[in-house]
Amino acid sequence: MTADLPRLHDLLDSGSALNWVCTGDSITHGLSHTLGARNYVDHLHELIRGDLERVQDVVINTAISGWRVVQLLEDFDRRVADWHPHVVTLMIGTNDCSTGGAFPVIEPVEFAASVTEFVARVRALDAIPVLQTQPSVDAANAPERARIADFAQAVRDVASAADVILVDQFARFTAVGEGRQGGIPWGLMNDPFHPNAAGHALLALDIAETLELTAGPERDRVLPLLRTLVHAAR
Fold this sequence. Notes:
By secondary structure, the protein is of the alpha/beta class. Helices cover 45% and strands 10% of the residues. It has helices at 4-14, 26-29, 40-51, 69-74, 76-79, 108-124, 148-162, 169-177, 197-211, 222-233, and strands at 19-24, 58-61, 87-91, 128-132, 165-167. The chain has a five-stranded parallel β-sheet, sandwiched between helices. The longest helix has 17 residues, at 108-124.
């Protein structure tokens, strides 16, 4: 287990107000594809500032649709540093793996180097980085993103090498898709590579479980709701 998880819980137990910054691409941005329902950062906000009663905490979503990790590095101050974060979550790679569009094609090793730099910059702020792999995609209908498994593995490799907390969303979505046509978790997807409302519920659930964010039974509202949403979509 990474040393960052007990450090996070020490911060939570300290009573200090924390700033949580969630950044990435369109999946974290969370527009449109939930059809008006909450995205995963919204669910985390409800869990942290509601169920956990951490009302002085701030949960900030700075993700931008269409972005790659190099753009996050170029705009690191606005996306991350300016908010004086204590915890920074990153989900990126769904655009980085693409072989279509205006961006140059990059290899997983280049992507991993940029994610490693991102982690180093977060730690230079004395903040805790949390890496997420990307959800799996319907490669038959998004062939330009067929390399996404390699980019998910790159995130895992960075997390292992840098001793970073990892939320393996790719593995969870892949597991849900087992036994379904094409191995795709259709009930969690709004299009070939964007999760729908249920998919965002699963993203939030995975983060909460990995970070061990659990409210007492008298205030445990969000996690049961997320589990219900995910179960209904399977």
